[in-house]
Each structure stands twice: as C-alpha cells, then as structure tokens.
Design brief:
The chain contains 20 helices and 3 strands. The protein is mainly α and 392 residues long. The protein has a domain of 43 residues.
Amino acid sequence: MVEFEFWWLLIIPLFFGLGWFAARIDIAQIISESTDFPSAYFKGLNFLIKNQYEKAAEAFSHAVKINNESLEIHFVLGSLYRRTGQLDRAINLHIDLLETRELTHQQQESVKAELALDYFKTGLYDRAEELLLALNKDSYHQFSLNTLLDIYSKEREWNKAITTATELEKISGVSFRENISHFYCEIAVIHILEKKNTQANEILRKALDEHKNCVRANILLGDICESEERFDEAVSHWKKVEYQQPEYLGLVASKILNAYQRQDKLNEGLTILSGYYDLYKLKTLLSILYSAIMSNEGPKKAETIARNELIQRPSLSALDQLFEAQAIGKTSKISNIELIQQTIKNAIGDRRFYSCNKCGFKARQFHWHCPACNSWESLPSEPIDIIMDNKI
C-alpha cells in the first residue's frame, strides 16, 4: 500500500492554476484574432445581409485599408465591385495583389481565377480565356470550363463550345446534351445562310443524335426542305414537333399551313391545325387558324371560332377577334363597333412577350438562347399576355 504524502495536496491547486492560465491564453488569442477584423468588416457584412451592395463595397474597401493582409476580404471586395459594376476597380484590385504581394502558388491561382471573372464581366474574353486555360486543373478545372463555356457561347465559337461542354459533362456528371444540340443548330444556321444545305443537314442530324427532343433541329430540317420545295418532307419534319415537345407547335403552325397552301391543299392544313388546337389549346394556334379562316372562309366562320373561344376561355384577345369578325361581316348592330375594337387593341397592344423562366428577361420575339442569362430553351414557346388571364 502506497503511503499518502501530504505534499501531494499542493499539486492539486497547481494543476487548477495551470488550467486557468491556459484557458486565459486561449481566450486572449481568440479575442486577438477576432479584433484582426476591423469594425468596417462587420458593417460590410450587415450591408450584405440587407442586400445593400454599394454600401457593403464601401465598408469592405475601408476594411481592406485597415487590414491589407487578408486575402479573404480582398476577394469579397472584388466580388462586390463586380456585382456593382465597378469592374475597373475589381481588375486593379486583383492585379495589385499579383504584382505587390508575396503569394503562395495556391493563392496566386485564386487571385487569377478572380481576375478571369473580372475580365469576363468586362467583356475582355481573350484575356479571361488565357487565364482560365492556364489555371490548375486539379483545383479549378470545372470552374474554368463553366466560364469558358459562357465565353464561347457569347463569342459564338460553337465548335469550342461543343468540346468544352462535352468535357464539362464528363467531370461534372451534369448533362449538357440539350446545350450541345443547340450548338450544332447554330452551326447549321450558318451553313443554311451560306446555302450549304447538305452540310446543314449533317449537322442537324448530329443535333438530334445528341438530344432526340431537339425541336429546333426538326424545324430547321423542315425549313431546308421547304426552301428546296420538298413540301411533304418539310411538313413531315415539322409534324415531329408534336411528339417531341407539343408546346412548340405554335412555331411551326404557319409553316405547315403555308406548305399545304402552296400545294393547293389548304383545307387539309386547316384540319391538321384544328386537330392540334383541340388537343393542346395553344393561343398561337388559335390566332393562326382565325386569320387563315378569315381570309379563306370569310368572317362568319371566323366569328364562330372567336365566339366559341370567348365562351370557353374568356380573354380580350378573343373578344377582339369576335368584334373584328362582326365588323367585317357587319353582323353586329353596334354602330361604333370599330371604336370598341380599337379600344381593345390599345388595351392589349404590345403587352405580349416571352419571359425567360431563369432570369425574367422579356423579349418581343422568341429566342432559343436567352440573351441575358445564356440559358437555352428558357423562354416559353408561347408569348405571355399581361392580361391574358383576366376574366371579362
């Protein structure tokens, strides 16, 4: 049995004292580290939370002057400069870091990645591309490919875009089939404008191989056939849209009708479009049908179509068509019907537009590629009417 020694009692308070002292050192270190961030940093964070980006940029700019050693604060400030459109300041900030600071290789790569984004936002695509291609593939490969894909799309370098998207798909696991099919379509459009229909046909087949539901490819194949007066083949391509994405039938309806009309088969074309409308209720189809029937069968038949539509789906557009048919056919007893119709036209005038479902960009004409956010097929196939859902 070990004999108890009274002097051991002295060790207990000693250990408590050492523990307390160590804790004090840790707390002091934490406080010291936290005070390395100036108050402007926390003000900037507060502005960020409130989405006040210009004030946040000013606060972080002040924070950088106080604590010039923190790369993280520089990166936040550079991002805010880009967001607020101060692109020259972002570029100068990152160039200054590269030229005046002793950075590790990894830090240099990080700054170059930020600088590449600055150049991209500024529209200096050549400089951005040069930096992105030189970045370390282990750390920045996917980031570089994503940005390069945006660059090649904006510069319309479609072959480079195809190569980049294919590689990006391999390393990210995200499908780019739809994008690649549109890149092929863009190349085909160039061939069509140059009257190189054979090459365009080959490219469009590749587009369909990449993405079987590429509506645009079948539309363009039909356009080529139509230009060569092969109307049956053209219609065959356009009809395939129904089995791909029927909501896009409005884009080919007038093409189909025109092809039948050029073959003196207008009634057959009208029957096909009527069948499409009965199935899918697309307003573009109704508008094309109404105009064709008004021109070829007269206002009485057109009035019937407009009246039925007004009963089933009330809208100012249908009411406008009804009044137009009545005015032309003089079936209404209202003496100032033309004035009423003009009032309706003014009400619904230029309020139909295509709105990107990714960024909200609005366009009067349909675009396969959103000019604002570079998304493909993000604009609806049917234009939106601000008051289209208002009940009469």
